[in-house]
């Protein structure tokens, strides 16, 4: 489908579900960004879930964003249960504005929800020549190291640094071996998941996404991944006044209340300590790229590089939606 047509359909659906024109356009842009970077697990396939939660009054499309400035460059944003994209966008906008003015900013968002891909927000900061970290917690998916039951979310950590005239360095990764969205979409489309990324409810490795969703996902690097997911829960949940410790609700199948997810943005100028940051980071990347490569590797890529290339290539093409997702959109329009 042509991107313009798809965007119009998404906007129409979002407005029907109560969003104003500005927010509907923004959400559509973020969902389509996910399609462009081949992260369809976080794209249009999620729209029916968001709409379902709006219908159940678990997301408030009119939720007012309230910004409380704690000091010049520290803010707490109450997203008032609006959809995660809106709270997170307000968060990064505030973080960028304050970092530009004061050199560094710390912005927390509470009463928010699932916000899609962290790189969308980080991209806004690097485009303003800023370095940025962002954290968000998510519903239980990973068992803490040593536990039988999942409690931490896939809790992504994202970091971005600008590189002059080149795609930015953007490392953006969940703390699980694969992100939960990939398991959700495999379950939806009747596909298998890779071996070794999840256990069923009896603790056995499974490639069946439905069994994996009832079991636990495995963290990256055992106790190290578990520790990082925990750190994100503290920064996004405990620190911001949001849900934490396993109490973030799963947006797909827990309708007992809003998600109350938290996000945290730390943004700062790239030239705080050195005048020639852009030269130094280029030099740093050159050194890595010059290393001898293992068999089969043509180029050593830095995080964010291939995502940018996918984005540029896919932006020119139509978006191919699976029939099931296309049918969902048609139903949402009715
Ligand atoms: N909102 C949420 O609750 C939530 C939860 C989990 C994940 N997510 C999002 O899902 C997205 C995907 O997460 P993921 O864990 O599947 O990421 P991923 O495994 O696709 O990539 C992780 C990181 O590795 C880098 N990378 C990948 N291949 C590389 C290579 N060959 N060389 C160098 N670097 C490489 C990528 O640029 C990326 O920064 C992220 O944008 C994340 O923010 C969101």
- In CATH terms, what is the architecture? 2-Layer Sandwich
Task: Report the mean per-residue pLDDT as an integer.
Answer: 97
Radius of gyration: 20 Å
Give the number of domains: 1
User: How many helical elements?
Assistant: 11
Q: Structural class, judged by helices and strands?
A: alpha+beta
The hetero molecules present are:
nicotinamide-adenine-dinucleotide
| DSSP helix fraction | 40-55%
Structural notes for this entry:
By secondary structure, this protein is an alpha+beta fold. The chain has one domain (3-176, 219-273, 313-333): Malate/L-lactate/L-sulpholactate dehydrogenase, NADPH binding domain (Ribosomal Protein S8, Chain: A, domain 1), CATH 3.30.1370. It has helices at residues 3-16, 21-36, 47-55, 84-102, 118-127, 180-189, 209-214, 222-238, 277-289, 305-315, 323-333; strands spanning 66-71, 74-78, 104-112, 130-136, 157-161, 169-173, 198-199, 216-217, 261-269. The model has no long low-confidence stretch (mean pLDDT 97). Nicotinamide-adenine-dinucleotide binds next to helix 5 and strand 6.
Key traits:
334 residues; alpha+beta; Ribosomal Protein S8, Chain: A, domain 1; seven-stranded mixed sheet; 9 strands; globular; binds nicotinamide-adenine-dinucleotide
Topology:
Elements: H1 3-16, H2 21-36, H3 47-55, E1 66-71, E2 74-78, H4 84-102, E3 104-112, H5 118-127, E4 130-136, E5 157-161, E6 169-173, H6 180-189, E7 198-199, H7 209-214, E8 216-217, H8 222-238, E9 261-269, H9 277-289, H10 305-315, H11 323-333
Parallel strand pairs: 2-3
Antiparallel strand pairs: 1-2, 3-9, 4-5, 4-9, 5-6, 7-8
Helix pairs in contact: 1-2, 4-5
The structure holds nicotinamide-adenine-dinucleotide.
Residues 39, 42, 114-119, 136, 138, 154, 156, 158, 171-174, 178-179, 301, 303-304, 307 line the site of nicotinamide-adenine-dinucleotide (NAD).
